[in-house]
Amino acid sequence: MAVSLYERLGGTEGITRIASDLVDLHLANPRIAPRFADRDVAALKQGAGTFFISGTGGPAVYEGKDMLATHRGMNIDSSEFLAVLDDALKALDKNEIGQREKEEVLYILYSMKAHIVLV
Which is an annotated Pfam family here (predicted)? Predict the structure, then answer.
């Protein structure tokens, strides 16, 4: 039986760590940090973790808005989107995630572009 991406990323513990690192990277990234001003960092990390766990085959149930509803009206441009992908890659590298898993995660994130950029 194939091992899920959720399991290969370290399960709930590993993905929670990756999501936390990702939010920290976003907050430190001058290209996208203003998007997160005055936001509840703990809630951002929790939401990102739950979304990520759910989307990789884990047991969490994401109850937040979908990507289109979340990003509608924000006018996120392609360079901001790429900054998010760069941060995701850094978070995965920091957590010593393998190349195959990094490619799968980036593929999933990139597949959401139409629901995020200029919507």
Answer: Bac_globin
The structural domain count of the chain equals 1
Range of the structural domain that residue 23 is part of: 5-115
Per-residue pLDDT tens digits for 1-33 = 789 999 999 999 999 999 999 999 999 999 999
Domain CATH code at residue 48:
1.10.490.10
Cα distance between residue 16 and residue 73, in whole Å: 28
**Token output for 58:** 């884990």
Query: How far is the C-alpha of 38 from the C-alpha of 46, rounded, in Å?
Result: 16
Terminal-residue alpha carbon distance, the chain: 39
Helix axes 11-28, 78-94, angle to 10 degrees: 130
Question: What pTM did the predictor assign?
Answer: 0.93
The neighbour count for residue 92, using CB atoms within 10 Å, is 21
What percent of the chain shows pLDDT beyond 90? 89
Residue 73's CB is within 10 A of a number of other CB atoms, namely: 7
Q: What is the pLDDT of residue 63?
A: 87
The SS3 assignment for 81 reads: helix
